[in-house]
Write the structure tokens for this entry.
Amino acid sequence: MITPPELEAYAEAHTTPAPPHLAALHEDTLRTQSATQMLSGTVEGRFLEMLVWIALPRLVLEIGTYTGSAAQFMAGALPEGARVITCEFDADRAAFAREHLGTSPVGDRVEVAEGPALETISGLDGPFDLVFIDADKPAYVDYYEAVLPKLAERGLIAADNTLFGGEVLDPEPDGTAAAIVRFNDHVAADPRTVQVILPVRDGVTLIRHA
Ligand SMILES: C[S@@+](CC[C@H](N)C(=O)[O-])C[C@H]1O[C@@H](n2cnc3c(N)ncnc32)[C@H](O)[C@@H]1O
């Protein structure tokens, strides 16, 4: 997180709470899963839902499902007939996400694609109207390069954790923050795109075609 915990709590307290099916997912995630810091939660979920509300995407791609919170938030604002494909290579997490989708009012709009995300992406034609990159950080540049040619003309990429708790200012060599720095520099130097880093939660970069 880049904002102090009190400010993060204030932002959450003044953000529309998660609907009951997502509150139950969050509770079950925190109670039963490992690595719960990966749960993006309500503020970022509502932010992504707002992007969907504005952009009215037909096809959303999420790279990194975890337990499916962001996928369900995005699905909640989709127009009729649109869908989210979310990529997860961990079989237990994919099963957990599917179990919750089975009882969710938006479950029929979300498909969990199990397997390495780059393989899933290579089998999809697109065009992607919205892509949320939120899996292993060292592969962010590869994800970006894999989805950009399949991004719709007015599509958006949102990449998570791009300020990495502030560590981007002074990254350990070869650490995760250094991978994020490589991604940020790669995108900033790319004449094909226009981008902005927003200090939402741990940093979210929005990227579009130039
Ligand atoms: C940060 S979590 C995703 C959080 C989720 N987007 C959310 O907002 O709640 C990253 C997830 O990506 C998955 N992952 C990591 N590397 C992957 C890969 N190469 N292909 C597919 N999934 C991957 C991890 O198992 C993990 O569940």
About this structure: The chain has one domain: 5-209. The first strand starts at residue 59 and ends at 63. The pocket of S-adenosylmethionine is lined by residues 38-40, 62, 64-66, 69-70, 87-90, 93, 116-117, 134-136 (CB under 6 Å).
